Amino acid sequence: MAAAKKAAGPKAQKRSAYYKIEGAKVITSKKYCPRCGPGIMLADHKDRTTCGKCGYTEFRK
Predict the structure, then answer these.
(1) Burial class of residue 33 in the structure, from the number of CB atoms within 10 Å of its CB (0-12 exposed, 13-18 middle, 19+ buried)
(2) What separation in angstroms does the CA of 3 have from each of 6, 8, 9?
(3) Cβ 35 vs Cβ 56: under 8 Å
(4) What are the sequence ranges of the domains in the chain?
(5) pLDDT tens digits along 4-52
(6) 23 to each of 14, 19, 20, 27, 59, how far by Cα in Å?
(7) What is the rounded CA–CA span in Å between residue 57 and residue 35?
(8) Are strands 43-44 and 48-50 parallel, antiparallel or unpaired?
């Protein structure tokens, strides 16, 4: 059988890239979903931010 090909898409960021440490505080660089609550972050797109769990969407102007 032929070997499976991998997709040539962009590589995902590590989760540690979403957080910044300032002194004794941890600050997130993304917003949390207002429906799902803390722990579920919104994905950044070109014209919107969306939640992958519930589908909540905020459009940018």
Answers:
(1) buried
(2) 10, 15, 18
(3) yes
(4) 30-61
(5) 777 776 777 788 888 999 999 999 999 999 999 998 999 999 999 999 9
(6) 22, 13, 10, 10, 33
(7) 11
(8) antiparallel
Cα–Cα dist 35/4, whole Å: 39
- The tokens of 42 are what? 């919104």
- Taking a C-beta distance cutoff of 8 angstroms, is the pair 41, 18 a contact? yes
CA angle at residue 18 from 46 to 38, to 5 degrees? 95
Residue with tokens 């505080």: 25
The pTM for the full model equals 0.68
Rounded to whole angstroms, how far apart are CA atoms 50 and 34?
11
